[in-house]
Amino acid sequence: MRILKYLRRDETAATAIEYGLIAALIAVAAITAMSGMGSQLKSTFTKTSSSMSTVNS
Question: What distance in Å separates the CA atoms of residue 5 and residue 13, rounded to the nearest whole number?
Answer without folding.
Answer: 12
